[in-house]
Structure formats: structure tokens, C-alpha cells
What we know:
Layout: H1 3-16, H2 21-28, H3 32-39, H4 48-57, H5 73-78
Amino acid sequence: MDFQELAIELANLRKNKNISQQMMAEALHLSRATISNFENGSGNDIGLKKVIQIADYLGLEFQLKEKSPFPVFEDIING
């Protein structure tokens, strides 16, 4: 999953929970434009800390794990 796919996943989750960009922005002390730019791919400079805040607000967490020695589906397709 790349950064853009992550943004789309988080945007879909936000929408499924009926949370507006404005509601999230106010709760996280971010601008609505920052969230909008992140979700539509024009805010790649948002920073990991803010992405983690957004994920946490939506009830998600990031976890580091050791990479599998086996290829994932995307690796097989992309050769």
C-alpha cells in the first residue's frame, strides 16, 4: 500500500463513520484543507505524525512487523 492508497482508505473509513472533514479537523486541530489535500493526494507533505493522528481518530493504529520473506500479490504482478 502506498501513501495515496492509505489516504483513500482513511477517507473511505471517515465517510463510512459519517465524520466530516471539518469535524475531524476541529478534533485534531488541523485545517480542513490539510485533511482534504491529504485525502485527494495533493498533500503528500502532511507528515507521518498527522497521518497517525488521523488513523487514531478513526480508531486505527499502525503496527510495525517483520517483512515476510514471501512475495506479496503486488510483487508478483509488478514482476
